[in-house]
């Protein structure tokens, strides 16, 4: 027997589901959803769980991760309860809940804190990087103060500890979510075959966005007659694969120990192509959100802006540097741009598990679970 | 009373532009009618209802000295009054007119058998002629009406009706059982919509009632006796006092506005009787009595559970109906609570939310305010367990896959509906007004005559008729006021003379007629040591149900006397020789197509015009050479027989186009 908890609604509102208590359970949202299925029924029932305070039902469900927020349900809602926004909020709520430190909850629900925290982190990193830079006079008071007290190795170790801590938090979050997700999993008849097939399906989904493409609202006037590069699914695809490509390029750069001065080096080509893809997606997504072209782009939270803004800034500064490196323009401005690029990229990686970015792990996990259970 | 049989009758057989004449041999019917000794004028006409024909009829009546007329055409529903007016214009009594329906009863149903249609038409016309021979002349019955009204119940409906009736010159006797006027609205604060409180509405109405000299308000009073009928009711009002005093009034009409009672939950129904379980009426009083912290029996209330449909919509129980206003009432009470006591959580347990009209806005507002709604089915109602320290409501929530949810609350509110007022039965009996299966007073027709009862002169207002909110209550009270004034406002009432009459010499007063009369129109009289029935004219509606039950055949219905009915039977039974001409019969059998053989010639002409696609009626007229009005009638009939069909508007959007139906 479930016991009612009326406080959950208030909590979910803070994650962006501002209007969901207006829901009167007509079920139009579920009826119009192109992705809802017998074995994955949403969104109405999740708004219901939210109203009644059935937290566990939301946290252990894969359904929120199967939704791509096309916004068709919100457009069909007769009471403007925003079921699509609710699903987005449920995802953020789950990320925050699974992550053990509580930092994510603060970042999502307390905007002033989120701004102060990210800015402060940027300032600390920026100051540190300026101090290690050769451009700063070795006799600078601050520089001397820092390095007199801390040896470089200590700073390096501290960085490693922080990175490890962040990484472990993310890992723990994933494990916790996975445990909930896979609890009550029926015994598979042929586990190996099922796992192989599920992995194949997840890979196909990530490569082709086939479910996202299915959930396109054909009636949405803005996207009705647009070509595929402008469609939301492709915007999402290019951001995702762009970022993954850049990550690989960066890792390759480091492995090859040649921070990329040669334009035609394969890792550089990969970086440029991936960067263009990511910038295309991020730019379009930002434009769509600013203009509010369709329902899914209208109700943006700080977390949405932060992720997009960071990706865009990282991409922009990255290209700037590439041009600067090619033209051998070594000056203070380009040095500053380099620092900004590094700060933004570091924040993206550092806060990966503590931001909306974490969905990049949770969604494939939930998809894997979904496909695994599918007959 | 028997009038001399008519000697000079005019008969008119209508073609109805082919509607009749295409299937009925109109000329032959006219010929047969003309053979009758008393028929002076017999004509067949293209359209009997046409102005020109009406003028001809008036001229015939005057010139030929006709004293009765028969028109064989369409249904009397369509043209009875048309031809009654022709009779009046020619100086005849309007009841010296009989209409025979040969279109709906002959040409349309028997379009496949010309001989049968013609024979039946001839029989019906002969029946009409015999009927009009025995027809009596009647004048409107006029009775005097007291310009005063008895209103039972001084709630908002009764008071509002009293003010409105008094303002247009009627005396009003307003009787209220309680010590103060106001009814259920007295003392209430929040109403929806608007920001006027119930209390102030009642105070305002009561002040106006008391300030109106031609309203006599009696509180703590009851109606103790009623006799008489519309226009002249004699009513006794027990105005209390020691010893109890009866006042007598003569009123022209009565308005029943006795309202409703709230349903009283049975002890144990949803734990009714346990501490912390109260009906909605009590809850509303609790909410409206203060602000700040909501307290009940010394305990702070932080959450409230409303259970809807208590005692209502029982598929197996007594109250099968929906009380309509309780959903919105509970939602409003919840919003009212939020305004006065912020922070109290509300839970609603409902079967269906029926927040009709503007009240839907309240429902939305309540959801947005965080009220949680649970849906249950009649089969699995919520279970309430309440001890002194709070209550728990367990519900199988239909909206959450029937999961059982446990909801702890501080206060359980039973949202009860409206049931008939306790005295309804007694009041119904004294006014002889019927009450329905649900126990509420019955109107004649819920849509066409919503405030009248089968008893002439007795009207209904407000929720004594069934669950209503304040707005609807006042609307019906004002509708009843207007209706009452229309009846008594002139001081006289004109009654239709088509009513029953008793031959007192034949009557032996067995009481059978009075037993079957729903209107209480047959009253026992005693004269010269003999008892017999008389008809109370204002009460009789002319339904005729009394006439056949009378064992001594003492009762007749005006316009349907034995002489007239027997005449009709004789006329219809008359054996008339119908000859359908050889050519017509030959034409019929020679027609090549089974489907087309019955089409009149004009239809072929019209279909010819439709050959090239959709065409308007003026264009058909032009192409076929037929008169446009004739084309209209034919096309209508062709449409009815699925030969032609409408095909939208023409380009100028002035005319409808028609085409042949494939």
Structure report:
- The complex is a heterodimer of chains A (375) and B (662).
- Chain A is mainly α and 375 residues long.
- Chain A contains 19 helices and 1 strand.
- Chain A has a domain of 92 residues: Orthogonal Bundle (Fumarate Reductase Iron-sulfur Protein, Chain B, domain 2), CATH 1.10.1060.
- Helix content of chain A is 69%, strand content 1%.
- Chain A is globular and about 70 Å long.
- With 662 residues, chain B is α/β, with parallel strands linked by helices.
- In chain B, the strands form 11 sheets. In chain B, strands 8-7-6-12-25 form a 5-stranded parallel sheet.
- The relative contact order of chain B is 0.10.
- About 2% of the residues of chain B have low confidence.
- At the A-B interface, strand 1 and helix 3 of A face helix 10, strand 19 and strand 22 of B.
- Strand 1 of chain A pairs parallel with strand 22 of chain B, so a sheet runs across the interface.
Which keywords apply here?
heterodimer, A: 375 residues, mainly alpha, Fumarate Reductase Iron-sulfur Protein, Chain B, domain 2, B: 662 residues, alpha/beta, Rossmann fold, FAD/NAD(P)-binding domain, 5 domains, five-stranded parallel beta sheet, 19 helices, 25% strand
> Into which percent range does the helicity of residues of chain B fall?
25-40%
* Residue share in β-strands of chain A: under 5%
Q: Note the quaternary state here.
A: heterodimer
> Which of globular, elongated, flat, extended, rod-shaped describes the shape of chain A?
globular
Number of H/I helices of chain B = 19
Number of helices of chain A: 19
Structural class of chain A: mainly alpha
CATH homologous superfamily label of the domain at 7-98 in chain A = Alpha-helical ferredoxin
């Amino acid at each position: 027997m479930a016991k009612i908890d009326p406080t959950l609604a208030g909590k979910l509102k803070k994650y962006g589901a501002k209007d969901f208590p207006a829901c009167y359970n007509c079920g139009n949202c579920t009826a119009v959803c192109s992705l809802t299925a017998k074995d994955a029924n949403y969104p109405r029932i999740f708004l219901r769980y939210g109203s009644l305070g059935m937290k566990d039902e939301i946290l252990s469900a894969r359904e929120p991760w199967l939704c791509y927020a096309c916004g068709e349900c919100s457009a069909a809602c007769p009471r403007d309860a925003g079921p699509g926004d609710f699903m987005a909020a449920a995802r953020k709520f789950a990320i925050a809940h699974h992550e053990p430190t509580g930092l994510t909850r603060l970042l999502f629900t307390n905007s002033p804190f989120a701004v102060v925290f990210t800015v402060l982190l940027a300032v600390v990193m920026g100051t540190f990087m300026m101090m290690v830079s050769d451009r700063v006079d070795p006799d600078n008071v601050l520089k001397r103060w820092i390095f007199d007290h801390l040896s470089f190795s200590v700073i390096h170790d501290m960085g490693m500890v922080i990175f490890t801590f962040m990484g472990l938090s993310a890992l723990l979050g994933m494990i916790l979510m996975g445990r909930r997700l896979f609890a009550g999993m029926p015994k598979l008849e042929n586990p190996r075959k099922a796992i192989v097939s599920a992995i194949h399906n997840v890979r196909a989904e990530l490569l082709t966005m086939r479910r996202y493409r299915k959930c396109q609202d054909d009636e949405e006037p803005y996207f009705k007659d647009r070509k595929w590069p402008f469609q939301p699914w492709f915007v999402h695809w290019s951001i995702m694969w762009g970022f993954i490509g850049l990550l690989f390029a960066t890792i390759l750069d480091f492995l090859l120990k040649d921070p990329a001065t040669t334009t035609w080096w394969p890792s550089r080509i990969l970086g440029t192509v991936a960067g263009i893809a990511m910038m295309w997606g991020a730019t379009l997504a930002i434009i769509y959100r600013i203009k509010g072209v369709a329902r899914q782009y209208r109700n943006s939270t700080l977390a949405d802006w932060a992720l997009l803004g960071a990706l865009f800034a990282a991409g922009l500064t990255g290209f700037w540097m590439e041009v600067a490196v090619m033209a051998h323009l070594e000056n203070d401005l380009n040095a500053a741009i380099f620092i900004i690029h590094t700060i933004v990229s570091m924040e993206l990686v550092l806060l990966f598990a503590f931001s909306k970015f974490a969905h990049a792990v949770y969604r494939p996990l939930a998809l894997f679970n979904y496909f695994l259970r599918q007959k | 009373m028997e009038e001399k049989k008519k000697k000079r009758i005019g008969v008119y057989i209508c073609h109805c532009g082919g509607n009749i004449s295409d299937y009925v041999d109109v000329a032959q019917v006219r010929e047969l009618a003309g053979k009758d000794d008393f028929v002076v004028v017999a004509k067949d006409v293209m359209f009997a209802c046409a102005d020109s024909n009406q003028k001809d009829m008036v001229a015939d009546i005057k010139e030929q000295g006709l004293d009765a007329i028969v028109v064989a055409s369409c249904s009397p529903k369509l043209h009875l009054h048309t031809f009654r007016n022709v009779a009046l214009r020619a100086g005849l009594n309007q009841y010296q007119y009989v209409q025979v329906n040969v279109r709906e009863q002959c040409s349309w149903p028997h379009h496949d058998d010309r001989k049968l249609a013609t024979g039946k038409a001839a029989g019906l016309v002969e029946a009409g002629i015999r009927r009009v021979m025995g027809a009596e002349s009647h004048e409107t019955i006029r009775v005097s009406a007291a310009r005063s009204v008895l209103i039972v119940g001084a709630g908002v409906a009764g008071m509002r009706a009293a003010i409105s009736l008094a303002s247009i010159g009627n005396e009003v006797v307003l009787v209220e059982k309680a010590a103060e006027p106001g009814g259920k609205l007295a003392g209430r604060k929040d109403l929806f919509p608007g920001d006027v409180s119930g209390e102030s509405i009642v105070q305002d109405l009561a002040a106006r009632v008391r300030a109106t000299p031609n309203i006599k308000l009696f509180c703590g009073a009851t109606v103790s006796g009623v006799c008489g009928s519309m226009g002249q009711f004699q009513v006794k009002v027990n105005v209390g006092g020691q010893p109890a005093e009866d006042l007598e009034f003569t009123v022209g009409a009565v308005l029943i506005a006795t309202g409703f009672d709230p349903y009283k939950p049975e002890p144990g129904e949803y734990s009714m009787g346990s501490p912390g379980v109260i009906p909605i009426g009590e809850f509303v009083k609790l909410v409206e009595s203060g602000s700040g912290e909501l307290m009940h029996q010394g305990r702070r209330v932080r959450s409230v559970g409303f259970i809807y449909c208590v005692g209502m919509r029982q598929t197996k129980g007594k109250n099968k109906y929906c009380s309509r206003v309780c959903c919105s009432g509970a939602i409003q009470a919840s919003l009212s609570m939020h305004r006065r006591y912020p922070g109290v959580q509300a839970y609603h347990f409902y079967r269906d939310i029926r927040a009709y009209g503007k009240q839907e806005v309240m429902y939305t507002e309540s959801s947005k305010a965080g009220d949680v709604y649970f849906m249950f089915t009649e089969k699995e109602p919520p279970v309430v367990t309440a001890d002194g320290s709070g209550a728990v409501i367990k519900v199988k929530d239909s909206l959450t896959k029937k999961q059982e949810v446990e909801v702890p609350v501080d206060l359980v509110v039973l949202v009860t509906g409206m049931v008939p007022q306790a005295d309804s039965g007694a009041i119904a009996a004294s006014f002889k007004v019927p009450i329905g299966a649900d126990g509420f007073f019955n109107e004649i027709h819920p849509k066409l005559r919503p405030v009248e009862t089968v008893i002439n002169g007795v009207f209904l207002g407000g929720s004594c008729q069934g669950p209503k909110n304040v707005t609807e209550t006042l609307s019906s009270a004002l509708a009843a006021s207007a209706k009452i004034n229309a009846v008594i406002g002139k001081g006289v009432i004109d009654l239709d003379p088509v009513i029953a009459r008793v031959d007192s010499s034949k009557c032996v007063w067995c009481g059978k007629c009075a037993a079957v009369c729903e209107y209480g129109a047959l009253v026992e009289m005693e004269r010269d040591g003999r008892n017999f029935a008389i008809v109370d004219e204002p009460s009789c509606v002319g339904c005729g149900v009394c006439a056949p039950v009378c064992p001594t055949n003492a009762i007749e219905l005006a316009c349907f006397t034995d002489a007239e009915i027997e005449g009709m039977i004789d006329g219809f039974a008359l054996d008339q020789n119908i000859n359908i001409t050889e050519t017509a019969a030959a034409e019929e059998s020679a027609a090549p197509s089974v489907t087309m053989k019955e089409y009149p010639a004009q239809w072929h002409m019209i279909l010819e015009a439709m050959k090239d696609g959709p065409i308007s009626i003026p264009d058909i007229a032009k192409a076929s050479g037929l008169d446009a009005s004739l084309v209209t009638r034919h096309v209508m009939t062709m449409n009815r027989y699925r030969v032609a069909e409408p095909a939208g508007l023409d380009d100028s959007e002035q005319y409808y186009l028609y085409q042949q139906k494939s």
